[in-house]
Amino acid sequence: MKAIKGLILFCFLAVTVSSCFDPPEFGIAPKISFNKIEFKVTPDPSDADSLILYIDFRDGNGDMGLSDDFRDDPYHERSFYFEDVANNKIKAVGTVIQAVNRPPLPSSMPMIITPPTGKLVTHRTRNKPGFGSLPPFSAANLECRDYTTAYLLIAPSASSAIDASYNITDTLRDNAGNRYYVVKDTVYFKRNPNYYNISVRFYQSTGGPFTEFSWEDQLCTTLNGRFPVLSDKSGPLEGTLRYAMTSTGFTPLFSIRTLKLDVIVKDRALNKDSIRTPEFTLQQIRVN
Questions:
Q1: How confident is the model at residue 73 (pLDDT cuts 50, 70, 90)?
Q2: Fewer CB within 10 Å, N side or C side of the chain?
Q3: 3-state secondary structure of 149
Q4: What CATH number was assigned to the domain covering residues 6-66+197-285?
């Protein structure tokens, strides 16, 4: 089961813009409705099949879509955490992408600029009083969930979040002499749901109640994704999103199961709307 891979394919969009001569009145939050869903099987069993969602949408100011360079808070890919010692909690913090010119370091890194409420949360934080509910470190889950050892840049404004106990691999300075720390430690993280502007949750049944199938828990992947910017102008926008999810796992996982999907679509202001698809089987929606 763990060998089955799921991945996102680029979303193709069919978009129609309302007439500028007589524009309709849409709310600034997106409104979506189910159009249809298709299942396309490739002739070669080793190739990925496609589950394709068609979602109709309307949006009053046209701020739909995220380009690849939307990677700064609140669209950052991963949230890291500071200790909140006073409340025995941890507090999520976003990042911005910073270009770095120091080979062999990566050419860009996520950087924390938010002033901290406490130290940066790592796998060691779990051993501190009040933080025992943090998940234990698991090498099998490293980079998949809970902990990562990816490079992280700490800006001067957040420098008190770390100390000599952290694995600081390098120190950088800007033109003003400000000091930035490069950290490569076992740091706690969560995927940021606002990195995606379309999210899909799978529910399955073999005749009884529906239960959720989590791609992240089962296969360390996600079928959430992004569709690109739909318009470079502000104003009413409506059309149909064609969102293709590809995986070699659809048939072995769901061939004898009934499915339904929850779909959430967001605009750049993080306004959102959701739908639930009708129940279906893969055979019922197969188009080839």
A1: very high
A2: N
A3: coil
A4: 2.60.40
